[in-house]
Design goal:
The protein is of the alpha/beta class. The protein has four helices and five strands, in the order βαβαβααββ. The N and C termini lie far apart (55 Å). The protein binds zinc ion. The site of zinc ion has 7 residues, from helix 3.
Length: 152
């Protein structure tokens, strides 16, 4: 006997919010990113673009060149097909992409992440033509996560 299909208790709403967020695929932070975007920024049903390091791939690092191509294509698709108007970029503290792929250590790691958010915002603006781009840094504090705005 095959198992019956699982049915989600969450209702489906087909209306798009015309916003996307780019953040790291780190599953320990997934629900915090959702909470911040849905409750903090009031963006329910936002489009998700997640990959290790998140917006790091849009900051011009040679180590992320393939990811840059992919995410650039995805963003253009979301603008054309989903009518994207707003993009939220989020970096998070102690991101393994920065520590491992870019071989950075604190305190320099956080400085590079914040500079990358500024670069990624400019790049996203250039690629998509959108002006409504904002950036945040997610910080872990005593078992909680805070989202700080980064001027980009
Ligand atoms: Zn990460």
């Amino acid at each position: 006997m095959p198992q019956p299909p699982y049915e989600s208790r969450l209702p489906y709403n087909s209306a798009r919010i015309h916003a996307a967020a780019i953040y790291c695929s780190d599953g320990r932070m997934g629900e915090h990113f959702d909470d911040f975007l849905e409750q903090g920024l009031k963006l329910p049903r936002y489009d998700r673009v997640t990959l290790p390091g998140g917006p790091a791939c849009l900051a011009g690092h040679a180590q992320a060149h393939l990811e840059e191509q992919g995410v650039m294509d995805e963003l253009k698709f979301l603008v054309e097909v989903h009518g994207l108007k707003r993009v939220v970029l989020i970096a998070h503290q102690s991101c393994a992409f920065y520590a491992s792929r870019l071989e950075l250590k604190e305190p320099r790691l956080e400085l590079v992440q914040k500079a990358d958010l500024v670069r990624a915002a400019a790049f996203t603006n250039r690629v998509t033509g959108l002006n409504n781009i904002e950036a945040y840094f997610a910080r872990n504090l005593d078992g909680k996560v805070q989202f700080e705005r980064v001027e980009a």
